[in-house]
């Protein structure tokens, strides 16, 4: 797979995800571009646009809002699962390791969002999910995506079970955790055991999210700007969405610390 193909896959995937995120906010004005390539991404884009039109044409009253929200979460979840399945199908036709790794990255990002809508669909208020439950479910899913499962890598959680957050904030949080944990699996523990620690607590007027590993870390001579391939650029962008202060820690491994306001 050449660099142009990889760039094309990422750009099309990100564009589709952006529109699905808009639908999750009940913003049905966004549309996904359909090109003249007539490939699998255009097929997905067409389906997503049709979903948006159906939801936009729905009559929303106070009585219908709860039912509509449930339907939105259900349909968004199903569409994300379809995209994930199509990526799995596409991956089955190649043995190119770089292409397979790219598909896995995109698929894990999609799953991190799909889980949020699955949990919202099953809750009573349809607006918030328990952070602890989500993070634990997500990280186990990421683990299983790397060669089935790595039993030599364990998780240590310190998450306040009383914290619930809405989808608009959980989506970037989930994607940040996905990028950080995936990086640990890919780079931190070459042929060795390891631990990934995740903390999510209240600290004064802020939430504090910490993700770290006890792996081999990064050389001090390498700057974070050089690590687009590690997802650090995406983590920076998602941190901005949360209005969060991001700190990258290189201490006995690699870690990320985010501080953002509770009442944002």
UniProtKB/TrEMBL annotation:
- What top-tier enzyme class does this entry carry? transferase
Report domain Histidine kinase positions: 71-264
- Which keywords does the record carry? ATP-binding, Kinase, Nucleotide-binding, Phosphoprotein, Transferase
Catalyses: ATP + protein L-histidine = ADP + protein N-phospho-L-histidine
Q: What is its EC number?
A: 2.7.13.3
- Give yes or no: UniProt keyword Ligase: no
What domain of life?
A: Bacteria
Annotated Gene3D superfamilies? Histidine kinase-like ATPase, C-terminal domain, PAS domain
Q: Which GO terms describe its molecular function?
A: ATP binding; protein histidine kinase activity
* Record protein name field: histidine kinase
Name its species. Fluviicola chungangensis
């Amino acid at each position: 797979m050449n660099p142009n193909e990889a760039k094309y896959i990422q750009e099309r995937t990100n564009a589709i995800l952006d529109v699905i995120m808009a639908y999750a906010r009940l913003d049905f004005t966004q549309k996904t571009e359909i090109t003249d390539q007539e490939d699998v991404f255009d097929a997905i884009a067409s389906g997503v646009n049709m979903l948006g039109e159906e939801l936009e044409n729905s009559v929303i009253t106070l009585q219908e809002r709860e039912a509509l929200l449930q339907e939105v979460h259900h349909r968004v979840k199903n569409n994300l699962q379809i995209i994930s399945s199509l990526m799995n199908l596409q991956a089955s036709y190649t043995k190119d390791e770089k292409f397979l790794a790219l598909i896995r990255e995109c698929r894990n990002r999609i799953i991190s969002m799909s889980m949020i809508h699955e949990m919202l669909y099953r809750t009573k208020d349809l607006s918030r999910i328990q952070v602890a439950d989500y993070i634990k479910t997500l990280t186990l899913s990421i683990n299983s995506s790397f060669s089935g499962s790595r039993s030599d890598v364990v998780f240590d959680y310190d998450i306040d079970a009383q914290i619930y957050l809405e989808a608009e904030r959980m989506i970037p949080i989930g994607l940040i955790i996905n990028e950080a944990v995936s990086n640990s699996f890919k780079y931190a523990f070459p042929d060795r055991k390891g631990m990934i620690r995740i903390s999510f607590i209240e600290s004064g007027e802020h939430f504090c999210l910490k993700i770290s590993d006890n792996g081999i870390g990064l050389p001090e001579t390498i700057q974070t700007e050089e690590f687009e391939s590690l997802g650090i650029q995406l983590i920076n962008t998602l941190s901005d969405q949360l209005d969060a202060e991001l700190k990258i820690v290189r201490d006995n491994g690699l870690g990320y610390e985010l501080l953002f306001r509770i009442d944002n």
